[in-house]
């Protein structure tokens, strides 16, 4: 995801576990025991930080947003941000659907290939709120005057909740159009990356990609076996989708004797691992569709994604569970 997630490499300083969270009046803090979560509804409905309070300072499970990132309102430098109504790239920002060309170029996305949908670049509305839970709402109504606007009307929601130390995130969407809508969703977490960070995940194959990080073919790769046994974040130069994911991935900081287990419900059937060489970035990302899935052609069953019929809704949950050992 060469954009600090994808497209162009952006170097982000490593998030040290002792870094203090930043004060920002627009942030909403959730708490459960010693665990804290800060949410930035105005910055793409993003999670700014997820950490445990300790006598040594905050122990971060996601890479925390810096004050400069908050000041800039940059979702790509948050702890995690939502992906609606598709995940990752669409080649040349266009695809064919039901005999029509959907052209997304010019919608404000600064990347040459449409990236991560649009909900991450817009403010979300705050809904029901408790000390440990929060609902965020997003509504998209197409604007025919806006070049490249997503031509389907839909609503999306995030329910963000701390239960003990675990982060429960329920994503949902509802097609409000009078016609079918191609669709995908996910969340894009960044994790602290140290020389001793490992990633475990049961996957079956990797999507190989071209220089634009667009998929070329699905096949074997040494990273597949490495992930099954515990792959060092420094082992490969990765920005790839993995198929046949068993819906669980574990990020372990072996030197710090702690781990974070990610589990996801179907249709989060695909996993993205972004671990670029010579950078401190690490993403292990649950998604419902692979990169450029809308242009998958003859193999849509391998690329994921859904078509939501008029009035149809979809809901699925992602959970991150921390543990020290």
From TrEMBL:
InterPro entries: Aldose_1/G6P_1-epimerase, Gal_mutarotase_sf_dom, GH-type_carb-bd. GO terms for biological process: carbohydrate metabolic process. Gene3D superfamilies: 2.70.98.10. It comes from the Bacteria. GO terms for molecular function: carbohydrate binding; isomerase activity. This is Aldose 1-epimerase.
């Amino acid at each position: 995801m060469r954009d600090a997630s994808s497209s162009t490499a952006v170097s982000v300083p490593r998030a040290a576990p002792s870094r203090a969270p930043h004060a920002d009046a627009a942030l909403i803090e959730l708490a459960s025991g010693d665990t804290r979560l800060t949410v930035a509804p105005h910055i793409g409905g993003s999670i700014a930080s997820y950490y445990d309070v300790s006598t040594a300072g905050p122990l971060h499970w996601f890479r925390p947003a810096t004050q400069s990132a908050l000041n800039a309102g940059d979702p790509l430098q948050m702890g995690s941000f939502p992906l609606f109504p598709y995940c990752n790239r669409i080649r040349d920002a266009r695809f064919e659907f039901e005999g029509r060309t959907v052209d997304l170029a010019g919608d404000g996305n600064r990347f040459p290939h449409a990236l991560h949908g649009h909900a991450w670049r817009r403010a979300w509305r705050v809904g029901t709120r408790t000390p440990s839970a929060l609902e965020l709402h997003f509504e998209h109504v197409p604007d025919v005057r806006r070049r490249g606007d997503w031509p389907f009307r839909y609503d999306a929601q995030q329910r963000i909740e701390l239960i003990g130390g675990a982060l429960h995130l329920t994503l949902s969407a509802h097609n409000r159009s009078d016609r079918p809508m191609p669709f995908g969703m996910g969340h894009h977490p960044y994790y602290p990356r140290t020389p001793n960070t490992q990633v475990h995940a049961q996957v079956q194959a990797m999507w190989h990609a071209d220089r634009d990080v667009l998929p070329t073919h699905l096949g074997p790769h040494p990273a597949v076996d490495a992930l099954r046994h515990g792959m060092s974040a420094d082992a490969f130069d990765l920005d790839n989708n993995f198929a046949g994911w068993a819906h669980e991935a574990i990020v372990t900081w072996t030197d710090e004797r702690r781990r974070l287990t990610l589990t996801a419900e179907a249709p989060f059937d695909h996993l993205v691992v972004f671990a670029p060489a010579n950078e401190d970035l690490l993403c292990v990302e649950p998604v419902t569709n692979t990169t450029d899935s809308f242009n998958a052609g003859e193999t849509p069953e391998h690329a994921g994604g859904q078509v939501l019929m008029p009035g149809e809704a979809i809901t699925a949950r992602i959970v991150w569970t921390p543990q020290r050992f």
